[in-house]
Write a structure and sequence with these properties.
single chain; 224 residues; alpha+beta; nine-stranded mixed β-sheet
Length: 224
């Protein structure tokens, strides 16, 4: 096997930690990073002490004002495949917006919206609930709850699209990443700040999605 030496001294073997996969229910006001230069609390601060030295990092992002499902792992290969733009892993959100989007606005969102010079991918958008009336505008609904499913993860995408359509986001909660939901083994939703280790079956499902996307990508790139 190869040996690496510095100034004639052979470096000892580096022992990597065992692969670890954690699903966290991110609460408000935590930043999705390993450390923050401004001293704000990070998602790593929420983890039990036994997971702290494991080299975990967030897979993707949720901004400080967003909540819900966030995957953390020390598996760099899985992170690359889950975050690379060519690998479409669906993410499901419950979003509350101001006002009531028109049928045309919802159709635009589903089809794609020009955002920072580039069209967003088609999205699934479903109305879940119409909120209460606006006390300043009788007969007008003040909020609308939507379910949104995306297969891309551009920075603050949902917030920017909603704002461009005239319906700013009031609340944003991610309920699912691919096959991963926020339920624990008993079917109970994790408390905010709570986390759980993924099961071997869930890890296998993620890898299956990645492999399927790889096969699809290879077929598209194959010469005719």
């Amino acid at each position: 096997c190869d040996r690496i030496s510095v100034d004639g001294q052979i470096l000892g073997q580096v022992h990597r930690p065992e692969p670890l996969y954690i699903l966290l229910n991110k609460p408000l006001n935590y930043v999705t990073t390993c450390r923050d230069p401004w001293g704000r609390p990070t998602v790593l601060d929420l983890l039990p002490l036994e997971y702290q030295p494991s080299g975990l990092h967030p897979v993707g992002r949720l901004d400080a004002q967003s909540t819900g499902a966030l995957l953390l792992t020390n598996d760099g290969d899985l992170t690359f495949h889950l975050t690379h733009p060519t690998h479409s892993v669906s993410k499901t959100y419950e979003v509350q917006v101001r006002g009531t989007p028109s049928a045309n606005a919802l159709a635009q969102w589903r089809k794609g919206v020009l955002l920072e010079g580039r069209m967003t991918r088609p999205a699934q958008v479903r109305v879940l609930d119409l909120g209460g009336g606006d006390s300043y505008a009788p007969g007008v609904r003040s909020t609308t709850d939507l379910e949104i499913v995306l297969k891309e993860g551009r920075k603050r995408q949902i917030r920017l699209v909603a704002k461009s359509l005239g319906h700013p986001v009031l609340k944003l909660h991610r309920t699912q990443i691919g096959p991963l939901g926020l339920e624990d083994s008993s079917g109970r939703i994790l408390d905010p700040g709570g986390c759980r280790v993924l099961t071997p079956s869930e890890i296998g499902e993620l890898r299956h999605i990645i492999e399927s996307n790889d096969r699809t990508k290879n077929r598209k790139e194959a010469p005719v």
